[in-house]
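Session log. Operator J.P. requested a structure for one protein chain; no other inputs attached. Running the standard single-chain path with token output.
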Amino acid sequence: MKILKILLTLFILLCTVSLADAKTKSNSNENYRLEYLNLDWWQKYNDPVLTDYISTAFKNNQDLKIATLNVKQSEQVVKMAFAGQLPQVGFQGDVFRDFRSANVKLGDVIVKDYSQSNFFLPLTMSYEVDIWGENYLKTKSFKKQLEMVKQNERASYISLTSAVASEYFNLVKLDKLIKNQQELVKLQTEIVRLEDLKYKNGLCPITELMDEKQLLTQLQEELNVYIDKRIIVGRALGVLTGEREKDLSLMPRSDYSIITLLPLPDSINAEVIQYRPDFMKAEEYIQKIGIDVKVAKRDFLPKFILYGQAGFSAYNLTNIFGNHTFKSLVGFMPSIDLFTGGAKMARLRYNKLELEKAQQIYEKTILSSIQEVNNSLGGALTRELNYNESVKRYNLENDKFNLAQKKFDIGAKSNLEMMKDKEKLLVAEKDKVNSQVNYLISTLNIYKAVGGNDFTTINEKL
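Structure written below.
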């Protein structure tokens, strides 16, 4: 029985030491996913409807749920790897009966043929003493893999929230464009009616009337396209937010005019790429493969396994748990592979090549990240300039319309001419709305390029 106590004590000590080494940051707290959502950033657009859509997507979107499940699976893989650092205890009983066995010769003693039962009920413990730290490194490698999966999850959040915002901005834009287009169609319909009266009274040629009718058909076609696009964008937003059971035409949205246009920095420091998920994933990948190379090297070294067994062995059940039936053993088994057909060397070379490939991936990620940051900022600055120009053009058109209104009030301009001036103003407003929403969407591109951070203050953090 003393041996059993010794084995149990040794097992508890080994488990305690191994569990102490395994203490890491807890992954059970899922608050970091709310940080990925970054609601404080989305509130800067000053549109509560947008933040509601972001929150709804956080709860319902399937891609985010899949990314979260991938993280949880990787956490279990880490636990499985860590189990390799712990002692293993099992029970493997052996119960059998010999029926009229042949004579057994034990030296000069001959045991005649006999029949007997055998009962062996042991607990078996084995523990690979991790002298070289190979099992520890394997667990560490899987932890690096877990961090890579977490970066994939973070990338999914950045991409998903940006896609929701983009579809929402497009939906808001289409609402305004449809409203303007409907007014244009209404005005053009009235213009055609007045031109028809002029033609009937011989005040204009038939070609002028035909031109106005042709313009009406073009405006109606544009209206149909806008309506169709709004349906498509609404469906896309419904898929992203998981709101498939709601009437998409009734999905709430704000007026485009209340959405805040965020200021753009003149430049963004290249060090901002350190916040990008793909950059952080590439770093983790290099570290992981570096660990795998160490594991492959240590696989050439001998292994040492501590094992023990304690249990009861008897030839009948009546005295199976008696003191005289207790059996135990403790052993230490060194082992080394002398020949594996070159498998271990091939594994080492493979991991070294993978490390070289990981370094190339890292370098490529740096270049592509800097390019994406510069392209997104450059595109946004261009769209900001275009928006400012469209505002100037709209203001000039509005001033012209006000002058035309004064002429109309004093009888120096006809109602037909006023309607055509109103159409020009509506077209200028459409251009302004398009430019404004394009500017908004370009800020989303910067947000993704800088790794889901506030690009308006990102240079201050570096």
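Operator note: The CA atoms of residues 276 and 451 lie 4 Å apart.
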